[in-house]
Amino acid sequence: MRLLVLWIGILALVACSQSAEKSTRQKNCERINFESNSYVVCHFARASNNLGLFLKHPDGKPFGDFARLKTELEKSGKSLKFAMNAGMYHEDRRPVGLYVENGVKTGRLQKRASADNFGLLPNGVFWFDGTQAAVMRTLEFEKNFRTRALPKYATQSGPMLVIDGALHPSFKANSNSLNIRNGVGISADKSQVIFAISDGRVSFHTFARVFRDELKTPNALYLDGSVSKIFSTELGREDTGEEMGPIIAVVE
Asked: What is the pTM for the complete model shown?
């Protein structure tokens, strides 16, 4: 009898351990350390219908912050699980460059070099359509979609952080240009979309190496800096501050 009770206890412990391990694996967002800096990293399945881009509230004005988006989603019985600002924008919060939301195109591809970060070529496009997702250099994106319909969602930004496994050629290891930064990459097996945001101010070179060396993403795109923010129900985090332009979100 005692032996039976002992075996039942062991099996219960194993089941609890496996359940805890499974729960840990299923976490989407986590904190990581890379060298002397900390980051929040979030993984989501590439083939997901829960991922979307959001710019304007039904009143015609940009959402601007996570709270307005969250409130609007709740009106239709939906909940905001994750969100992050999805690229650079003008003073009126219009996206800079190409932006496609639910199949509707706004703006156009920006291919010329300029003095700002967006024009630090090569820049790129993050796109997805519920079945696939990718980060591509702008000219590569243009070539791929020259003879077929644009994807359901796309946001152009720049510069590229990682290009086919190499850092952007303009990044300097000793740069003193530091900012809170956020970006997106695709896992090496192409199954995951990976978002990252720094907790502190980092250089482009350091931030790009997080994607290449720690997250192992062959291609990654810079989304924004200084105004970078994140919303995560898992982490109990909802950044506030300066109003944003486009927002990328996971909705349930």
From this structure: 0.88
Q: What are phi and psi of 92, to 5 degrees?
A: -85, 10
Please tell me the distance from the alpha carbon of residue 249 to that of residue 63, in angstroms, as a whole number: 12
Q: Residues 180, 225: contact at Cβ < 8 Å?
A: yes
The pair of structure tokens assigned to 244 is: 């944003």
Q: In degrees rounded to 5, what are phi and psi of residue 82?
A: -150, 145
At 135, the amino acid letter reads V
CA atoms within 13 A on the CB side of 93: 19
Residue 44, both tokens:
């989501």
Q: Which residue has the tokens 């097996």?
A: 189
Residues 124-164 have pLDDT tens digits of 999 999 999 999 999 999 999 999 999 999 999 999 999 99
List pLDDT tens digits, range 20-38.
444 444 789 999 999 999 9
Q: What pLDDT sits at residue 23?
A: 41
Q: How far is CA 16 from the centre of its chain?
A: 32
C-alpha dihedral over 187, 107, 123, 211, to 10 degrees? -30
